[in-house]
Each structure stands twice: as C-alpha cells, then as structure tokens.
Amino acid sequence: MRLPSRPLHAAALATAGALLTGCFAATGQDPGGDGGRIRVAMMNPPRSGLSPLSDDAFKLSRWSTAETLVTLDADGDPRPALATSWRQAGRTWTFTVREGVTFHDGSPLTAGAVAHSLTRAANASPKPRILDGVDLRATASGRTVAVTTAAPDPLVPQRLSSPQLSILSAKAYRGRTVSPVGTGTGAFRLIEVDGTSSATLDRYDGYWGTKAKAPGIDVTFVPDGTARAAALRSGEADIVEAIPVSQAALLDPGLITEVPMPRTNTLYLNTAEGPFKDPGLRAAARRAVDAEAIAESVYEGRADVARGLLGPALPWAAALRSEPKRTGPERAGAKRAGAAGPDGAAVTIGTFTDRAELPEVAQTLQQQLRRAGFRVTLEVRQYAHIEADALAGRFDAFILSRATVLDSGDPAAYLYSDFASRGSFNIAQLADPAVDKALDKAAATTAGDARRRAVMAAEAAVLATDAAIPMVHERVVQGDAARVVGAAHDPRERLLVTPATYVR
C-alpha cells in the first residue's frame, strides 16, 4: 500500500499560485463602517445550491446570513435567537417569536413564517439530518409557534438551533427548491452565488440585532488546502478556514488559531467476531496504542491526546469524567493477554483516504501493534468505497475521525449511534446491556447538568468495554490576517464572520 507523502513541493506551490489568480476581489473601503469587505477562503464549495436543508446550511450560519429560533452557548445549552422564550408541555414545545425582525426581502418575521420553514424541513425528502427519526409538526398562533413531536423530546430547543432549520421567508421556497438568496434574517444579506466558485453578501442595515461593522463579505471556495494557505500568506484573503496541518508550520504563527473540534480520531474494535471478540486482546490493543506519538508525529503537535471520547471542545467533559470500571471478565482477560501477549494474532485495520492524516495514523498504529505482538494488515480506500464494509463488521478494527457533537450540539446522539446495540453507526458491533442502559438514560434525561453527567457515565460504560480506543482530538486551524478583528473561532463551526467582525 502506498501512503500519501507530506512534503510540500515547489510544484504544489506553483499550483496554489495558479489557483489563486483572480480568485479574490479587491477590498473596498466603507466610509461608514470599520474597514473594507471581508474576503473569505472556504474549503468546501456548495453541494446543494446552498439549500439550508443540507450541510450547506453551515455556510449560511458561518456568514451570519441565515438564523435559527435558538442558538447554543459554549456548554451546548439553548439560548434565545429568533425565539425569545420557550416552554414544554408533554410532547409540545411553544416558542415565542421575536418581534421587530424582517427578512432580507423586507417581509416581517411572523409565527406563520417560522411554522412554514419548519414544516418544509420536516416534510423534506430527504429530511435534514437533525430530524432523522423525529416526527415534527409546527403550528402558528399569534406570536407563538407550537412544535409537537411524536414522543416527548427533551432536545427540541437544541434541535432547532441547527443551521439546517434556519428560518427563511416564504420567497425562499419554490417547488422542491429552497434558496437563501435575499431571504434570511441575519446581519449579512446573501446577494449572489456563482455556482461552486464564490458568493457575495452585503451588510443588511435592517438587521434586528447589532449592525454589522463590515460592509460585506466576498467568499471564494478553494478546495485545495495549499492554495488556501497561500491566500493567507500572500494577503489575498482575510479569513481562511481549515488550513491543513502540513501547511500551518509554513505560516506566521500570529496569523493562525487552533480551535479544538468536537471530533475524535478513534480506533474502533470489532467486538462481535475476529480476534477482538476477546476482551483480553482488546485490552492489549489499548495498552499498545501510543496516542502521544500519533499526536506528535502525524498531527505535528496540533492535536490533543484523548483522555476519553469527548474532548476539549466540550469544556464540561473533563471535569465530569471518571475512570471506566472494567468488569471482572474483562480484567481477567486483560491480565491473560498481558501475560501471554497477542501471540501473533492477525488483525486487519481499515481506514480511508478522504482525511489526509488517517492513512498515516494507520501506518503508525500498525507499527505500534506489531511491537505488541499483533500481525497487522492495513486496508485503505476512499470513504465512499469502504463505509459499507466497516458498518458490516468486515474489519477487525477501523480508524475513524468522528464528530462527537452532531447537529443538536448534544453528544448523546453520537454515543447512541456508535455504541448502542441498535445504533445505526455501530462499527464496533457492540451489544452490551450495561452500555445500552447508560445510553438510554442519557437520551431520556432533561438537558442541562443532569444530562451531561449521564452522558459522561455512558462514555465510561463504553470505554469499559474497550470497543473503542480514543486517540486524539482534532483541531481546526483557522487563518486570520493581521488586520482582521473579531473573527469567530467556533469549535462547532457554526460561526465565522459575525456582526463584530471587520478588517482595519
């Protein structure tokens, strides 16, 4: 197997220069504002025409053009946005809609407009990911919107914070399509989208909140990481998202910010069949993994060594974490494996090429596990060509970079998906009654401190099985030119340019 190399060659730099030619417009000054237009280089171009019902919604949120009823604080608790308050009664949550808000087309924000947007999302095919498995109905009355679910759902406010449930004016909806151009409520009005090349936004002076300091945003989509880094280095972009680790060392340290992401690089072990069905061999693999070496060699120190499944992007997790209590049979199995060693047990580890670091992580793990006595074979493909086999349990182990906080901002959904016996993404093939009980409790607990404690108890239950070995928590490297003020550094990647952002 040939693994991708890391060195940056002159040819790559030349390619980056060619990619940048003509990409970024000149910065225009705004005599009534705090500087010129903000030039942003983004990694992924739109995949669904910037429809808020897709992952493109996060671009709209990062540009402060589309807004939701609710926003989240650093702990993941809901806070007012287009809704000023809410209350629950059984299966129904009632939200009071903020007054004095207008859409970018001049029409007023009403409870009817909110209900219309939510209804379109609930009836979409496919549904926005945040509504997977959720039967939601929205009805308007006066200044309130009642949101009713088929079963009591303690996370409705958090769900409504997802950018995929942004509230747009009626003009946004034409047949099966949804267009955010000129139909949001945010501080910046989306004026134009040029396919997968660029987007233009102007300040919306009728914004209900604090007026934006910058006159507008000029977005260019630059999928090539070397080109994005070159745009920051040359001064052709003011804000650059997702600078590759390999490029960060080549930039002025004062221009980059490393933001902990709610994303963990984890080794999933197949608990249903093969060598790792034996808990002793799972424990031996856990002891063989040197996460610090992976963080230093593969991520060049730009990742945090994992102490659990949930990392520093969730500031409350570390304080609530407890050591996993392994069961008697697991302790005995670990002891047997520690005494006899893996004895040449043959294992196949799968991973994918879409994230540049993962093949290198696989190679490093191969060396570590071999030193512990395992015979290790690697299988590396594109994600689209390996996901089905991973979910079907066709590997002994699988390396995955996994988002631990999904669209609701709540990690219970990720834990359930990945480790419940009925979980839809259970690569470890785990079926453990103690884990299922802990996950069910976390899912049913009301949002807040009690739910966070239940989530951490579920994490401990998962770790006690050695079905997953968390290795590192990834960081996103963001570049801000020296003249940029107030750019957001958001672990959830929902914010980037805010009303407070401007260039000197």
TrEMBL record:
What the entry lists under Pfam families is as follows:
SBP_bac_5
Give all residue intervals belonging to the Solute-binding protein family domain: 78-424
Q: Which GO terms describe its cellular component?
A: ATP-binding cassette (ABC) transporter complex; periplasmic space
| Bias (Basic and acidic residues) | 322-333
**Region (Disordered) location:** 322-342
PROSITE patterns registered for this protein in UniProt:
PROKAR_LIPOPROTEIN
SUPFAM superfamilies in the cross-refs:
Periplasmic binding protein-like II
User: What protein does this entry describe?
Assistant: ABC transporter substrate-binding protein
> PANTHER family, alphabetically?
MONOACYL PHOSPHATIDYLINOSITOL TETRAMANNOSIDE-BINDING PROTEIN LPQW-RELATED, PERIPLASMIC BINDING COMPONENT OF ABC TRANSPORTER
**One Gene Ontology MF term:** peptide transmembrane transporter activity
Any one of the GO BP annotations: peptide transport
Q: Record keywords: Signal included?
A: yes
- Keywords of this entry: Signal
Q: Does the keyword Signal apply?
A: yes
What are the boundaries of the signal sequence?
1-25
